[in-house]
Amino acid sequence: MLTIKKSILVYPVILHPEDEGYSVEIPDIDHGTWTQGEDLKDALLMAQDAIGIMLEDKTEYPKASKLEDIIVKGDEIKTVVYINMEEYRRNNPKTVRKNVTVPEYLVVLGKQQNINFSAVLTEALKNKLEL
């Protein structure tokens, strides 16, 4: 359960209404990250995705500001966005080439049965890591 809690991140965002849609400011990510959305729902989803993109390769995450410390002006809206980084990584996987060593007879048998070695290794790693 601790792993799940650590992977769920909550960050404040500031929605800036535009003539069409919203600009979204995420102050705690990379000294201020911006994105935009066509409407409120799209803006919040884009903020979630921007956080995921910026943090997907990280194991330590920036500390979130307190919502009450966020100052807004006029018609700006402050709210929070949450993201489950484990889920984000599962749904947006990067692939990397990895050389592995396996017994030759398994390679021969696998090729005869048209086995996708990458898929088998990925499945085995997920099982071993209990993902």
From TrEMBL:
<dbReference type="Pfam" id="PF15919">
    <property type="entry name" value="HicB_lk_antitox"/>
</dbReference>
<protein>
    <submittedName>
        <fullName>Type II toxin-antitoxin system HicB family antitoxin</fullName>
    </submittedName>
</protein>
<dbReference type="InterPro" id="IPR031807">
    <property type="entry name" value="HicB-like"/>
</dbReference>
<dbReference type="InterPro" id="IPR035069">
    <property type="entry name" value="TTHA1013/TTHA0281-like"/>
</dbReference>
<feature type="domain" description="HicB-like antitoxin of toxin-antitoxin system">
    <location>
        <begin position="11"/>
        <end position="107"/>
    </location>
</feature>
